[in-house]
Amino acid sequence: MRKTDCPLTLDLDRYVPALLVWVSNKLSASASQLYRGLFDLGVTDWRVLAYIHIYPWSTGAQVCALIGLDKAAVSRSFGFLEGRGLLRSRHSGLRKVEYTTTAEGARLYQKVLKLAMARERALLTGYSAGERTALIQSLHRLLNNLAAVDAVSDAQPNGTSSKSLRRAAVFSG
Fold first, then answer.
1. What's residue 170's pLDDT?
2. What secondary structure does DSSP assign to 36-81, as a single string?
């Protein structure tokens, strides 16, 4: 079948979910390699450390809810970070554990943050202040639209089934 015979085509250069995933994957991969080499810290560990530093005495469920990380990955990061003395925990309720950074964790957070902010500046090279503000606003709008994305069901108005949507989701993560 020729490409023009397909009823639907996916233009990967304009398909926003794919572009977002590609940027995210490439940023994450290079950050993980860099942070692991310099700080013995994976990118997931950095995300958890940053969240806990910003929101002290938070739980794993709160980390997962805000940043959308896998519960098992967050749990492994908590164990790793606590084992290195970067976080400390306290029990709050039957099965609830809250975390905060230690003094050493706060120092490492500051070191990694300097590098993370330099990487962000490099990523946004060529953007004016107004364009950066517009990008941030657009990304927040996308975050706010995720509930609508999750609500897409089998009953598609254009006749597309959720099965074909699931196939397309391979590109959107």
1. 40
2. HHHHS--HHHHHHHHHHHHSSSEEHHHHHHHH---HHHHHHHHHHH
Exposure b/e, 40-55, CB count within 10 A at least 16 = b: ebbbbbbbbbbbbbee
Name the pLDDT band for 5 (thresholds 50, 70, 90): low
Query: Can you read off the two tokens belonging to residue 101?
Result: 């950074």
Contacts of 167 (CB under 8 A, 6+ apart): none
Q: Note the pLDDT tens digit of each residue in 122-172.
A: 999 999 999 999 999 999 999 999 999 988 974 465 545 454 444 444 444
How would you class 65 by CB atoms within 10 Å of its CB: exposed for 0-12, middle for 13-18, buried for 19 or more?
exposed
Helix axes 60-67, 43-54, angle to 10 degrees: 110
Q: Could you tell me how many residues make up the chain? A: 173
Structure tokens at 32: 């993980």
Q: CA angle, 138 as apex, 136 and 140 as ends, to 5°?
A: 70
97-101 vs 58-59, strand pairing mode: antiparallel
